[in-house]
Amino acid sequence: MVKILAITPIIGSTGDAVNERQVITAASRYSKRVFVITPISIKDVIRRSYKMYLSYRLSNTKMLLIPFVLLPYNRLWVLNFMIFILYSLMLSIIAYILDLRIAFDLIYVRDPRFALFISFFKRLSKKTFVKIGAIVEEEIHTSFLRRLMKLIVCSIDRHVMKRVAGIVVNSAEFAKRLVLRRQFLSKKIIALPPGITWSIIDIVKRYCPKRKRDVKDEIVVGFLGWLVRREEVGFLCDIAAELNRRGYKAKLKVVGDGPLRKYLINRCLDKGVEIEITGFLPHHRALCSARKEFDVLALPRIRSETNSSIVPIKVVEALALGIPVVVTDLPVYKRLEGKGLYTSKRTPKHFADIILKLLSTTCHSIDYGFLRTYSYIYNVRKFLRIALGNKS
Fold first, then answer.
1. In what order do the strands lie in the sheet with 296-299?
2. pTM: predicted TM-score of the whole model, two decimal places
3. Domain ranges (residues) in the chain
4. DSSP 8
5. How many other β-carbons are positioned within 10 Å of the β-carbon of residue 72?
6. What percent of the chain has pLDDT over 90?
7. Which helix H or strand E contains 77, and what residues bound it?
8. Domain 2-195+375-387's class?
């Protein structure tokens, strides 16, 4: 039974926080002791929303919450970079002090920027595994900033990859793209894909009845998660508008929130599409809302190296809840085709064609046996065995 230090965001309802929270919960089952250092927004501190997460943690898990705030605009990237540097320095000092007292067997860090100064301490770096969840420069859309950010991010990533014990990624496909982008091969690369906690899925399925759609009812096109540019959220309105144009009554239901909320509402108003946005909900409530109200989950993501190599947690969770999923035809989804997931060309017409076709059938073949391989319990145990050098 190992002792683990985890530095990762677990407070909140975004996909990253939900994902990391389930990773930590699964790791706690195989560990003697887990100490979590998690960033928390000022808003969550004021609302005391962290209390729920503190009360539901396992008895062998302790948490240290440290406020962390980024400025909201890309144009202020220099200030944000300075915030990351100061925060990383503070994290390294805290981690070093804790390790002197507890002597952790493994240190898990989400984001190379958080691990920057940890990588300078040999005592820490030799047992640190850093998760790289995305190619960060793809999120910068101003060409001038993109060049500068790429130089900075690539430098930090390569430095961390060189010094730590290994890198954690969401998939083998993403690992290949990351190595090509960074032009550096880490000592050890372990795939820990986004997955599901089946106990949560079973509870939601038990208490939240699946939506039963009458032919005369409206079509509810659903979206679950973070309203940001990479999700191409404006395209959701185009899909619903195309369904309306064909004589159906389509509604867009968003379980989530994000910086593009106002843009999405205005676009739907222009298209004459009814829209409902719930805002962020606790994880189980978000899944319950999707199961009860979605006819289909639509995910018209833009093509990028990150999107093309990672299956989002919301896709796997929707399939586990029996919700059919229609996504942009990106390579990473090939293994899920025919198992409840449908791929589409990224045009409103093609998305609408597939949605109408799948809704015309009463039975969807979702391969629940295949989805079991996305279990956090299974994948985290595998990760710990490889990271600690025990493959038996």
1. 274-277, 250-257, 219-226, 296-299, 325-328, 341-344
2. 0.90
3. 2-195+375-387, 198-373
4. -
5. 9
6. 60
7. helix 77-102
8. alpha beta
Tens digit of each residue's pLDDT (9 = 90 or more) over 194-237? 888 888 999 999 999 998 876 567 899 999 998 988 888 899 99
CA distance 251 to 261: 16
Strand 325-328 relative to strand 341-344, pairing? parallel
CA dist., res. 130 & res. 119, Å (int) = 10
Give domain 198-373's CATH architecture.
3-Layer(aba) Sandwich (3.40)
- For residue 57, give both structure tokens: 């943690």
- Taking the C-alpha atoms of residue 287 and residue 255, their distance in angstroms, rounded to an integer, is 9
Summary mean pLDDT of the chain: 89
In tens, the pLDDT along 311-360 reads 998 999 999 999 999 999 998 898 888 888 999 999 999 999 999 998 88
Residues 6 or more apart whose Cβ sits within 8 Å of residue 350: 344
DSSP 8-state code for residue 237 = H
CB-based contacts of 245: which residues, under 8 Å, 6+ apart? none
| Strand bridging mode 296-299 / 219-226 | parallel
